[in-house]
Amino acid sequence: MGKAGTKGVSRVDRERQIIDVAVEEFGRHGYAGVSVAAVARRAGISKPLIYSYFDSKDGLYLACVHHVGALLVDSVAAARTRSGSTGHAVDTLTAIFTAVEHCRYAWSVLYDPALPPAGEMRDAVNHYRERLADMGAAGAAQLLSGAGQDDPLDHDLLNHVWQHAVTAVMRWWFEHPDQNTSEMTARCTRLLMALGTG
Fold first, then answer.
1. DSSP state letter for 101
2. Do 184 and 93 contact (CB within 8 A), yes or no?
3. pLDDT tens across 69-93, in order?
4. What burial letters (b/e) apply to 43-77, b meaning 16+ CB within 10 Å?
5. CA separation for the pair 198, 171 (Å, rounded)
6. Burial class (CB in 10 A: 0-12, 13-18, 19+), 132
7. Range with lowest mean pLDDT among 5-9, 36-40, 112-116, 146-150
8. Hey, which of 17, 111, 141, 149 has its CA 20 to 30 A from 104?
9. Residues in Cβ contact with 80 at an 8 Å cutoff, skipping those fewer than 6 apart
10. pLDDT confidence of residue 83
11. How does DSSP assign 62-95, residue by residue?
12. How confident is the model at residue 129 (pLDDT cuts 50, 70, 90)?
C-alpha cells in the first residue's frame, strides 16, 4: 500500500493521476512544449507536489515513458498469437489502438522528435522503441518466410515499411479524433485487404 497522498488520495493513485495528465500533455505538445506548471494546473494540484513525486520535469517525462512504453510493449506482445500470419498486422494495430484508446497521444511520448538526443530519457525511449521494432521485425520476417521469401533485404524493407506505416496510422488517428478503436481497426483491415496483405 502506498503512502498517503493529498486530500485522502493515496500516493499511488495521485502519481497515476499526474502521469495520465502528463502523458496527454507531452503527447500533444512534445517534451519541449510542456511545463510542470501546466501539468499541475491540468491535474488540479500544486507544482511542488509534482516535484515531490518526480523530482523534475525530466523525472515526470521518464515516468510517462515507462508507463506508455510498458503498456505498448505488453499489448503488442500479447497480440502475437497469429504471428507470421496475414492477420498479425491487424492484431498488432488493434492492440495499439486499444492500449491508447483513452489517450491516443500516448504514442507520441515515445516518438517525440524534440526529445534531447542523449541522456536517460532518450535511453528509456530507445529501449521501448527498440522492443517494439524488434517485435515488428520478427512478425515481418515470419510473414515473408511463410511465403518462401528469404532475401534479407526484402525483410529489411518490409520492416521499414511497417514501422513507418504504424506511425503514419497513429498520426492520422490524432487528426481524426472522431474515429474510435473499432472504426480504426475496421478501416485498417479494409486497407490491408485491399493491398492484398490482410
1. T
2. yes
3. 999 999 999 887 665 555 778 888 9
4. bebeeeebeebbeebebbbbbbbebbbebbbebbe
5. 21
6. buried
7. 5-9
8. 141
9. 88, 91, 92, 135, 139
10. 58
11. HHHHHHHHHHHHHHHHHTGGGTTSTTHHHHHHHH
12. very high
Query: What is the rounded CA–CA span in Å between residue 28 and residue 26?
Result: 6
Q: Would you state the cell numbers that stand for residue 132, as one nine-digit string? A: 517494439
Q: How many residues does the chain have?
A: 198
Query: What mean pLDDT is predicted for residues 161-170?
Result: 90
Residue 24: what residue type? E
C-beta of residue 139 within 8 angstroms of C-beta of residue 82:
no
Ranges of H-type helices in the chain:
11-29, 36-43, 47-54, 57-78, 88-99, 106-110, 120-146, 152-175, 181-194
